[in-house]
Specification:
Strand content: 25-35%
CATH topology of the largest domain: HU Protein, Chain A
CATH superfamily of the largest domain: IHF-like DNA-binding proteins
Largest sheet: 3 strands, antiparallel
Strand order of the largest sheet: 1-2-5
Number of helices: 3
Radius of gyration: 19 Å
Structural class: alpha+beta
Mean pLDDT: 95
Length: 93
């Protein structure tokens, strides 16, 4: 599902809301999650999962084309851990 499909689904299930308002709500939610993670905070949505940021240390990698060693700088990457309710639902529970 892409963002526009999510907006469409929410708008269909809530006919009292204008589509532009649903778009603004969805964008605000995503923006807040991104902002919290950019500040190094964890975002937990009960039953769905938790978004956090993990640090990857600098390392020596390898260029797959040439095979030569390449320095890879440290970086921060998003991490998602599923909640119990989502995990159970995916596994037929």
């Amino acid at each position: 599902m892409i963002r526009s499909e999510l907006v469409q689904k929410i708008a269909e299930e809530n006919p009292h809301l204008y589509q532009r308002d649903v778009e603004r709500i969805v964008s605000t939610i995503f923006d807040e999650i991104i902002e919290a993670m950019a500040n190094g905070n964890r975002v937990e949505l009960r039953g769905f999962g938790a978004f956090s940021v993990k640090k990857r240390d600098a390392r020596v990698g390898r260029n797959p084309r040439t095979g030569e060693s390449v320095e890879v700088e440290e970086k921060y990457v998003p991490f998602f851990k599923t909640g119990k309710l989502l995990r159970d639902r995916l596994n037929g529970g």
